[in-house]
């Protein structure tokens, strides 16, 4: 928030939301850089009131905001199943479907990440890969 307020003081979540709202809805956007936010597991932001997720997508919907949200979910129809229409109406409709990893892919990733680690044997890696 120091980049927006110019100060390094602690603020409440409500104050932060208000400052961000002012920032993304102001008309002084030509001088500022675009901001791209990537949210993995976007369903974790779902609450009964949906105020946080609504604010995020509402800022992105503002024409002058220079704010883009990329939301990742394990389900293609998450928006329609979990979020209210007021949230869905703020979301863009560009969806990309990625195929899930197969166990051989996971096995190769684990082997690469573990490198020369001798604590975990090949049989354990294979078993863990098949369990995912």
UniProtKB/TrEMBL annotation:
GO molecular function: ATP binding; ATP hydrolysis activity; DNA replication origin binding
Protein name per its UniProtKB record: Origin recognition complex subunit 1
Record domain ATPase AAA-type core: where: 14-90
GO cellular component terms, semicolon-separated: nuclear origin of replication recognition complex
Pfam families per UniProt: AAA (PF00004)
Quaternary structure and interacting proteins, as annotated: ORC is composed of six subunits.
Function (record text): Component of the origin recognition complex (ORC) that binds origins of replication. DNA-binding is ATP-dependent, however specific DNA sequences that define origins of replication have not been identified so far. ORC is required to assemble the pre-replication complex necessary to initiate DNA replication.
UniProt similarity note: Belongs to the ORC1 family.
Organism classification: Eukaryota, Metazoa, Ecdysozoa, Nematoda, Chromadorea
Gene3D superfamilies: P-loop containing nucleotide triphosphate hydrolases
Keyword annotations from UniProtKB, A to Z: ATP-binding, DNA replication, DNA-binding, Nucleotide-binding, Nucleus
Subcellular compartments: Nucleus
Keyword Iron among record annotations: no
One GO biological process term: mitotic DNA replication checkpoint signaling
């Amino acid at each position: 928030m120091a980049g927006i307020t110019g100060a390094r003081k602690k603020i409440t979540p409500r104050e932060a939301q208000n400052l961000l709202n002012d920032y993304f809805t102001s008309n002084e956007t030509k001088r500022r850089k675009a901001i791209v936010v990537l949210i993995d597991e976007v369903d974790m932001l779902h609450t009964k009131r949906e105020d946080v997720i609504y604010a995020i997508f509402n800022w992105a919907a503002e024409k002058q905001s220079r704010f883009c949200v990329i939301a990742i979910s394990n389900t293609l129809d998450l928006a329609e199943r979990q979020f209210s229409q007021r949230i869905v109406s703020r979301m863009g409709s560009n969806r990309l479907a990625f195929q899930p990893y197969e166990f051989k892919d996971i096995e190769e990733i684990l082997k690469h990440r573990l490198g020369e680690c001798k604590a975990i044997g090949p049989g354990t890696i294979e078993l863990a890969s098949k369990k995912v």
